[in-house]
Design brief:
alpha+beta; 288 residues; 21% strand; two-stranded antiparallel sheet
């Protein structure tokens, strides 16, 4: 894609490797960037035997170095996520509280759940068995394999072995059920409203509720949200729903993407939008 843009085969591009953006910082190219609601997040499999204990899920979340992922591996092209919505939304990250990165606390949680390094090999065991985590993701978004590798390294520090399955065949593997954590990317608020993420991922009948999550509280809150038209009340409900997700430790949120679009010579009106949705507009034009 980078070479095609340089040669003129492409007029514009979205999704270039971060390290290549420097090649287009001067004329005739134009770079438009915006922090978006495209969120990288994980869902735990509710039927996974090793994840039935809430303390284990909380320990996993607390051992994921989100800041290191964003600042180092994403080269600052994003922001650390607390929940599904960036902080510039009234119902975004600044209004909720996620588990902080704390390896020592994660180790304490594992020990409370009975997982300790019994044989001194660096990995925790319980009744002689290790705690392996199958991390399922896909390579079509360049950030997801990096997040998997980052989590593999940080979780090793608390004695959890992460086995990465990064494959384009991820949807088929989801159906088979041989996974513990499924990590994907999703535009959580494409029209600026919070309800879309909850209805697609978090309710009992949601099509993308991969881990079988169920919360009676969340279901009741969604009933209220679906019939509420006051913006401030919708914001209050969305905050409560997000915090419910975070407190149940069945979802975790790593980062929000900073989208960068590169326009070539003669292209005007291609502007990155925070919703990651409204880029192709009537203002888009090419003069040559």
């Amino acid at each position: 894609m980078t070479m095609a843009l340089q040669s003129g085969e492409l007029d514009a591009a979205y999704g270039l490797p971060y390290s290549n953006l420097i090649l287009f910082r001067d004329e005739p190219y134009t770079i438009s960037s915006a922090d978006t609601s495209r969120t990288f997040f994980g869902q735990f499999d509710g039927s996974s035997e090793v994840l039935q204990d809430d303390r284990v899920r909380e320990a996993v979340i607390g051992a994921i170095d989100r800041e290191g992922f964003v600042n180092t591996l994403m080269e600052g092209n994003g922001s650390v996520a607390e929940g599904p919505f960036p902080s510039y939304f009234a119902f975004g990250d600044s209004k909720v509280q996620e588990e902080s990165y704390d390896l020592e606390y994660s180790r304490e949680l594992l020990a409370e759940a009975g997982w300790t390094d019994e044989d001194g090999d660096g990995y925790v065991e319980k009744d002689g068995k290790r705690l392996p985590i199958c991390w399922l993701t896909y390579p079509s978004r360049q950030e997801l394999p990096l997040l998997a590798e980052s989590a593999q390294a940080s979780l090793k520090k608390i004695g959890i072995e992460v086995q990465i399955q990064c494959t384009a065949n991820h949807l088929e593997l989801l159906k088979k059920g041989n996974w513990d954590v499924y990590v994907s990317a999703f535009v959580s608020a494409p029209t600026g409203d919070p309800e879309y993420f909850f209805t697609t991922h978090c309710l009992q009948d949601s099509s993308k509720n991969r881990g079988g999550y169920y919360s009676e509280t969340l279901e009741m809150l969604e009933q209220q949200l679906s019939g509420e038209f006051d913006t401030e009340k919708r914001t209050e409900l969305a905050i409560e729903m997000t915090q419910t997700l975070l407190d149940d430790h069945m979802f975790f949120f790593a980062s929000h993407l900073k989208m960068s679009m590169v326009s070539g010579e003669g292209v005007t009106g291609l502007t990155a939008h925070p919703c990651d949705y409204y880029e192709i507009t009537v203002n888009l034009d090419k003069n040559k």
